[in-house]
Known about the structure:
Structural class of chain A: alpha/beta
Number of strands of chain B: 23
CATH topology of the largest domain in chain A: 2-enoyl-CoA Hydratase, Chain A, domain 1
Number of strands of chain A: 22
Oligomer: heterotrimer
Number of helices of chain A: 26
CATH class of the largest domain in chain B: Alpha Beta
CATH architecture of the largest domain in chain A: Alpha-Beta Complex
Shape of chain A: globular
Strand order of the largest sheet of chain A: 1-4-5-6-7-8-9
Largest interface: A-B, 26 and 30 residues
CATH class of the largest domain in chain A: Alpha Beta
Strand content of chain B: 25-35%
Structural class of chain B: alpha+beta
Number of domains of chain B: 3
CATH superfamily of the largest domain in chain A: 2-enoyl-CoA Hydratase, Chain A, domain 1
Radius of gyration of chain B: 23 Å
Shape of chain B: globular
CATH superfamily of the largest domain in chain B: ATP-grasp fold, B domain
Strand content of chain A: 5-15%
CATH topology of the largest domain in chain B: D-amino Acid Aminotransferase, Chain A, domain 1
Distance between the termini of chain A: 82 Å
Radius of gyration of chain A: 31 Å
Number of domains of chain A: 4
Amino acid sequence: MELAKNLQQLTERLNYIRDIxxxxxxxxxxxLSSRLEEFRHNIETQANINFDEGxxxxxxxxxxxxxxxxNKLTPMDNVRIVRHPQRICLxxxxxxxxxxxTEIGGQxxxxxxxxxxxxxxxxxxxxxxxxxNQSVMVIGHEKGHGEEFRNGGSAKPWGNAKALHYMHVxxxxxxxxxxxxxxPGGDPVxxxxxxxxxxxxxxxxxxxxxxxxxxxxxEGGSGGAEALSLADKRLMLSHGYYSVISPEGAAAIxxxxxxxxxxxxxxxxxxAANLKLTAKDNxxxxxxxxVLQEPTLGARPYHFDFFRxxxxxxxxxxxxxxxxxxxxxxxxxxxxRRLRDTETNLDxxxxxxxxxxxxxxxxxxxxxxxxxxxxxxxxxxxxSMLGALSDxxxxxWREVYNRLVYDFFHRYRRTYTNFLEEATAEWETIKTxxxxxxxxxxxxxxxxxxxxxxxxxxxxxxxxADERGGWNWVSTxxxxxxxxxxxxxxxxxxxxxxxPDLYNEFAGVxxxxxxxxxxxxxxxxxxxxxxxxxxxxxxxxxxxNPLDFPTLDQRIKDAQEKTGLKSGCITFEARIDNIKNVxxxxxxxxxxxxxxxxxxxxxxSAIDRARRKRYPLIIYSHGTAGIRIQxxxxxxxxxxxxTIAIRRYIRAGGxxxxxxxTHSFGGPVASFLGCAHYQFAIRSSNLGFAGPxxxxxxxxxxxxxxxxxxxxxLSRGHIHGVWDRRDIRMNVxxxxxxxxxxxxxxx
Amino acid sequence: xxKEHKVLIANxxxxxxxxxxxCHKLGLSFVAVYTAEDAHSGHVALAKELGxxxxxYRISSYHDANELLSIADAANATAIHPGYGFFAEDFRFxxxxxxxxxxxxxxxxxxxxxxxxxxxxxxxxxARSLDIPTVPGSxxxxxxxxxxxxxxxxxxxxxxxxxxxxPLVLVKASAGGGGMGIxxxxxxxxxxxxxxxxxxxxxxQFKDDGVLIEQRIKNxxxxxxxxxxxRAGKNPxxxxxxxxxxxxxxxxxxxxxxxxxxxxxxxxxxxxxKVMDDITEYSITLARKVNYDSVGTWEWIVTKDGHPFLxxxxxxxxxxxxxxxxxxxIKGKADxxxxxxxxxxxLGDPLGYTQSDITFDGIGIEYRIIAEDTEQNFTPWVGNxxxxxxxxxxxxxxxTHLPQITKENPYTIPxxxxxxxxxxxxxxxxxxxxxxxxxxxxxxxSITGYNGQSSTLKSNIPFLLKNTDRILRF
Amino acid sequence: xxxxxSILEEIKKTPYTDLSVRxxxxxTLVFTDINEGDSVNSSSGQWQEIPGTKIATITRxxxxxxxxxxxxxFLQKLHMKYNNSFVEAGVEIAVLRHFLSKQEVVHxxxxxxxxxxxxxxxxxxxxxxxxxxxLKISGHKNITVTDxxxxxxxxxxKREIPLAxxxxxxxxxxxxxxxxxxxxxxxxxxxxxxxxQLSIIEDVISRVYHEWQEQE
Lengths: 747, 474, 216
């Protein structure tokens, strides 16, 4: 009986090896397989013999081979390990790491999103004879062991919303959050409020969560992972992966595959390697704080020792966050030293995880700074040393100046002005009342105002008489004599448009149906803001190739030559009717408007500038395909980084507007764009989390051609209005005036 | 003028017939176009009769510039005549025609002139800059409520001062047109609410909350001045005035008379001759100012007490050009054909005569003959016409695009277009004479037809007859 | 009484319709690499997002536009004489033979079985607003019309006048016109099924579904 069970286990181990190597190492696998078969055959044919010895030999062989193969693991093998149904899942962790737990908001498939699991759990620790139950909020993806309803751990928007809700709860209760990342990525089908937008909301919230957050990565798939992983400490399982995109997804893009085509195994394998998605890689980049060494060939539910490791490290991480926040008294340094000693059994120590209110802002600030410091060297800055130094000086001076002007002077001025306004209003009321008896008498005397009548029949002065309503910037496409067909011609009967009319006077808008043809990014830059009011900064920050991704250097160079830009993001200051703004543009023709480390750094710098100068901030997504996948996690880390900068800006009182044009998808929408309180789209634009091809490839679902249309996004609650391009200047101004108001910096 | 020119006629019906005839007269080749609905129209028959294998093409729509230009290229046309309606006053079309890779001559004013005079505010300001009278009120969009109220208030006072019994003020969206976003105010106390309503409407509809405030003039005559100039734009001439006050309930013209007033047989409470002289002079002044370089019509309203106000300029040949031609004589020319003159000058010929060479004689009436029920809100009648006949006389000029109609070969009125069937232009020595001839013509005119609902054809002949007595009076 | 069998036999003799593929507008026509007898598809996909087979390209003002097959079938005729030449609007460039599907046969039979209400004149027709609202909510097969009911709005020459229905009371079984399209005088607007004939109509449909064999 025992023997059969052992055999069964070995068979499973063999199958597991077969699965995770995807057809490689056939010799080793065949060896194991034949030995196992042989042994099984022996048992069946030769009765009454003691097989213990044979079994031990066989088991030893398995251990030997597994150790040998462990050294040969490629990144793609790790991906297969992580996806294997035998991989440990969140419920295993809840069972084995925590002392007790209650699942919140659902049970098995009876929950709004079975891919996201929330639990209240506690860990029991002892100090001397006294034991303490330390409560935590556990939030994470639940992949299960192959259950269909778990959706592979791909969270739906409402799953992420549920997680967000319990982050709030944890904050109210003042308990730490332990977040477990087991997701291949967010579910891309749009629904209220938009798959990307919900992720953005989560990131935005986590950027300011006032309780300690520890995240543990097993499978960190892009945006879906970011939704739960903006943590004070980020741990990672040694066989996990953390990546901007699945290797298959990257292969589809790199191989330029069309819908339905499959990438070759070799290409996928290469992509996995090039993306540098392993725990080791991410640790060296600094996006992960610590790697937890898993058992050979990856942790499975029967690796009970490993759960103890997780438990110890999770406790250690939480303790460290708390202690670091509390600062370093002599007493705490001692505690910290003990904590760092791996020999210490942390179950037998106790550190209170509750942070007093006074320290919570420190916690948040530490977390924000930690992320803002990341990925600094992942792009090229050709600015001279001196220039950089003088910039730094200017920045410092600005900070001091603004503190003085806005925080001190303006506060008192406002009080004074308020008083003055009230007094004036009161005086007016008194005056009107006093004058009333005379007014009616005055009205009876009809006087003919001859000059007024003169004005009725003669030419008046009009300073706008010469304005012809032309555009400041006109596309070169307007020079070509040809006509184009509106895509809605079939349904709306649009006549063909002559390009010199369409791209000049009509601003790319079909006069029949209002369809907006895409325009160059310069169109909005020069037609929305005051003429000659643009001042670009950081233009020398250059997109790099931090992963040495093959051929990316050349592709970046091509894009730079094509666009004349150094990166896919332009940042500048500009005025609208003398209202000063900081503007960042994501430029679609530069590698699809994708965001990498350079773009992220430029955005953060622009956001900081807006914060320091107290200007409104406008991000114009002329088009973005998402995070630049060839930069791997250097790209994906920009999601939390830029969102943190945005959060700081908004919290400091800034007005942040987002305008979408053409096509905006992926990470940017799911983070710093999607988190804006005020988002607008230019007509005929498309936006969402993942494009139709990605949805088809990942979920197999066909979506309607207008699934990502801006009006759909409006109905879904993602954006807050759809703007006509021709009225962009008026609309932006209107937004600045109505959403701004007197408490905004620019006043 | 080079005879090598080939004119594309970007229009249909009566005007297409007239342009083909004019080209034929000038010895120019032409290209006509037609749509499937118009296959039996007279202009198609005439194009087949007078043209060659590259003189007639079927297109999908008269409204599609691409169709017209593609035909122009295929047929090697060098110029385009837009007629009236469709592209006649579309400065973008004129611009495209002249600025495309294979440029063509647009027989009409240059596109800048069309654009300049197509903007009513701009026209009004141009006029005021030349001291030409315009409707009292603002000549620029007003964006400020206090200013708007000030203008409205002084407009009321102005009218009281002028002795207007019931002063009225019009508030309209400056970006609007076609009767949308216009309201009347009779009391200054109601002005604010009307103003706000119009402003909000304009903001929503046109994204521009500018508002115009003008005097609302009631009881006026609608006069026009026919202007012609060559491409040099230096020495415009006029072909007198027309009175177009007899209109359908939808403000569509039905009868036009030239000249605009007849002081020799009707007594007006003002000096009618001076008004006519003034408005022609003003019109010529404005034409000279903008270097007007084609035919055009200056539209005026003349109040009951004889005040003229310039309303707008129509930068095209108009339907009623024939009635002005009927009373005009050019020294040394057998007859006056304004369309031929427009083509000739449009292609670059100098005018060749001055105002002093143009004389006027008699009175002309133009009737627009339409199958419509004048009792029922001028509803067009649709069906087949099986008889259309009139008495040919020397004083009658009949312009029609209807083909030869017989009982066996009826004509089906296409439903897509303007319902005009024919223009009957009558010339008489004086008012009494022309009225008599008009009635004689109308009484002899016969149109019959039938349709699916077996209702008999309704025409506006009785309406025209009834109104013949009213002409040239207030 | 309607003789369904004989009509069906009649249709079976020519179980297809020949559709004229016409130039939508003027321009220079170039046929794609396609031959007479080739089969073509209409647009397909859940949202009709996959276009039909391209028959030719017509270029006007440097703007090439595909001419696509609108029905499934095969090319009975290709007027190759127009290849690489300038064509006028509405010129027939190909003939597409389309084999009738069951629904289409039902459609033909119903035109003979139902009481048809015809357009009195050439114009654009719309349902009266209240009827239109009901149609959109419950579909046309749930609307009963009675003699003298104001059912349509006739629109021509920019004017709109109401049009009353005359004929037997019954359900609107078929709608034959499209909004914004001109309907010629005498063409059917709607097909009415009097309640007592409902069973006969349903019999027609079921017989077609049993007897009709679709051809490729």
